[in-house]
């Protein structure tokens, strides 16, 4: 190609680039930063045509609070909301013990904790933590003591199109609040909070509640600790059926939630997204019921919660009190409780005869022989 042709090509390319930049700048909102500039918290520009109805049909019971965000508030009556959580709750969350202590009152209970709790659950477009996974629905619940219906207040948010994510996340953060909230979730430490972290980062936002100082009680781990041996599966649905006596009717499985959302924002049927809303609502209600049930179990020391109580007492060298929790578990055939109780009976409680019975039931030949010789010397 000759020089004139090359120059003409470069001019054409520059003209094409200038034209594209001009079109991009024309779509920017007034006051937007120059290309390459980043304003933390700047909302995404809507892709909808000015004057056109927002994507996603209106839904009964939901109110549009922003161009691409719908909201619904539900109140349900609950058990005595003023009843404090027991003084043994911290044993279920060993990694959070120090943070929980600030909510303990002079009676030893966690009386101030309930007013700080924020139960939350997300519905997302996938199970990956990557940047392509979006939270399109969220529920947040708090205990309320106001009349005429003290109980639980649940606020749900629904994203009706991608450009509304900034408003969606802003509203979520405002509902969590900044007054030292205590987050409560089910597998939220590993999944929900990670999705939120990614989405807020993508929007240039840094909410305080996702910082390291926020206390987060994930109910999955104590549920596994207490009921894995009994239930086998510790999914939320398995716990609802096996421990909370909850049976959902006409429930849309969570695996179908993404398809239901995509179907709705394309302007197709809204019936399934309404079912997703009910599913998400019940998930959040279940979190409150599950926390209450876990607290009841640890306060009674029933089942495997007795083992947790016993281990705490043993750490304080209160072996006789620990035996009160270990004995019923050992009698039920729990091998770990049997082993610990046999050790305490032999070495700390001076009851080799009972320790021998347990060692024999465990098939612990070495301990059985040692205890047999010890008993022979005593008698």
Write the layout of secondary structure elements.
Elements: H1 3-27, E1 63-66, E2 69-77, H2 97-100, E3 117-124, E4 135-144, E5 151-159, H3 165-176, E6 182-185, H4 188-202, E7 215-218, H5 220-231, H6 236-242, H7 257-265, H8 271-300, H9 305-315, H10 319-331, H11 335-347, H12 352-362, H13 365-378
Parallel strand pairs: 3-6, 6-7
Antiparallel strand pairs: 1-2, 2-5, 3-4, 4-5
Helix pairs in contact: 7-8, 8-9, 9-10, 10-11, 11-12, 12-13
Please mark out the parts with pLDDT under 50 across 5 or more consecutive residues, or reply none.
2-8, 27-43, 45-53
Number of helices: 13
CATH domain fold name of the largest domain: Nucleotidyltransferase, domain 5
**How large a portion of the residues is in β-strands, by DSSP E?**
5-15%
Q: What's the name of the CATH homologous superfamily of the largest domain?
A: Ribonuclease H-like superfamily/Ribonuclease H
The CATH architecture of the largest domain comes to: 2-Layer Sandwich
Mean pLDDT: 86
Helical percent range? 40-55%
Q: Could you tell me the radius of gyration in angstroms?
A: 29 Å
Strand order of the largest sheet: 1-2-5-4-3-6-7
Oligomer: single chain
The biggest sheet, with number of strands, parallel, antiparallel or mixed sense and barrel status, is: 7 strands, mixed
Question: How do the SSEs run, as a string of H and E?
Answer: HEEHEEEHEHEHHHHHHHHH
Kindly provide the name of the CATH class of the largest domain: Alpha Beta
Number of strands: 7
Task: Note the overall shape.
Answer: elongated
Overall tally of domains = 2
Structural class: alpha/beta
**N-C termini distance:** 112 Å
């Amino acid at each position: 190609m000759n020089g004139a042709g090359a120059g003409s090509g470069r001019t054409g390319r520059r003209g094409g680039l200038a034209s594209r930049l001009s079109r991009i700048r024309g779509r920017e909102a007034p006051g937007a930063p120059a290309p390459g500039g980043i304003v933390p918290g700047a909302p995404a520009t809507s892709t909808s045509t000015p004057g056109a109805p927002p994507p996603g049909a209106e839904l009964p019971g939901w109110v549009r609070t922003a161009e691409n965000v719908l909201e619904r508030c539900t109140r349900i009556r609950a058990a005595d909301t003023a009843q404090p959580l027991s003084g043994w709750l911290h044993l279920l969350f060993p990694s959070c013990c120090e943070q929980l202590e600030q909510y303990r009152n002079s009676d030893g209970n966690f009386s101030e904790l309930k007013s700080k709790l924020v139960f939350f659950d997300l519905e997302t477009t996938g199970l990956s933590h990557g940047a392509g996974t979006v939270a399109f629905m969220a529920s947040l619940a708090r205990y309320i003591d106001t009349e005429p219906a003290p109980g639980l207040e649940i606020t749900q948010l629904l994203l009706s199109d991608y450009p509304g994510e900034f408003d969606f996340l802003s509203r979520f953060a405002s509902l969590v609040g900044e007054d030292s909230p205590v987050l409560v979730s089910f597998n939220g430490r590993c999944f929900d909070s990670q999705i939120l972290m990614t989405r807020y980062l993508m929007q240039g936002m840094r909410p305080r509640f996702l910082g390291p100082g926020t206390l987060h009680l994930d109910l999955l781990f104590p549920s596994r600790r207490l009921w894995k041996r009994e239930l086998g599966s510790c999914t939320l649905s398995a716990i609802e059926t096996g421990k909370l006596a909850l049976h959902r009717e006409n429930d849309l499985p969570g695996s179908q939630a993404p398809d239901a959302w995509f179907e709705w924002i394309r302007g197709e049927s809204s019936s399934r997204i309404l079912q997703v809303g009910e599913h998400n609502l019940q998930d959040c209600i279940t979190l409150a019921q599950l926390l209450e049930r876990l607290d009841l179990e640890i306060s009674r020391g029933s089942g495997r919660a007795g083992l947790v109580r016993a281990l705490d007492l043993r750490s304080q060298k209160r072996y006789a009190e620990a035996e009160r929790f270990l004995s019923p578990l050992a009698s039920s055939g729990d091998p770990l409780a049997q082993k610990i109780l046999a050790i305490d009976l032999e070495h700390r409680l001076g009851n080799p005869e009972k320790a021998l019975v347990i060692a024999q039931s465990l098939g612990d030949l070495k301990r059985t022989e040692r205890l047999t010789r010890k008993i022979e010397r005593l008698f």
